Amino acid sequence: MVLKPLGYEDRLTGVFAALADPTRRAILTQLKHGDATVAELAAPFSMSQPAVSKHLKVLENAGLISRSQRATARLSHLEAEPLRAAVGWLMDYRAYWAESFDRLDDLLDDLKEES
Amino acid sequence: MKVIAEPGVPQVVIVREFRAPRELLFRAYTEPDLVKRWLGPAGLELIVNQLDPRHGGRWRWTHYDDEGKGYVFHGLYHGEPTPDRIVQTYEFDHAPGTVYLNLITFDEADGVTTLTQNTVFFAVEDRDQYVDGGMERGIRVSMQQLDDLVTELAEEAHS
Question: Which positions 98-127 of B are in contact with A (Cβ < 8 Å)?
Fold first, then answer.
């Protein structure tokens, strides 16, 4: 099912491009546990901090994270809204009808009791 | 629920069985108060703006997401809707002129009604756009994985 308001496409393209990379997905997963510095985010990867910073830039441009300054370090913060938009967009035809028909089962049970 | 979408054919068929007489299914499809109780994905609220189940009658409904954005669908009934069959056209308000045709049949046997929804589009591309939500085929393989992750992230970030 295509459910997308106008002007939605470009933003989602950015979100999906950002999510297409496994390192960036791992970074987002890590940020679920709380805000983190570049050094903290780089720790699990065999990757330099500048390389991680490049990934953070992509995530920030897609609106998936925001960054703030804490003393001498920049903190990354997970942003939920674009993810919710992506989830809404992934709702496809099958899900639309499968969910509808499951609820129709319940409604039909109610109607059978009434009649 | 069975979904049949053959490659190269601008058609999707859904088959689903319900443990209820077809008269009740017909009511669930044609009474606005009942339609809003089941139609549409979980998480979206349905408002039935118009529903006139007769030959040439109009229907129009809007799905609202939790931010209040509305997604309007509308169309006409063709032929008198009955507990045997409903024929209706569909158009999404954001894609005027892209119309698809729905034939819904209800076959009842031994207390079970088999619903068949046969949807026909102008072109295979329109069908694929609809069924895949515009997804490019190349990225579909990773989509399930991505879907799981994104859903999980959104749920946790939302909570």
Answer: 115, 117
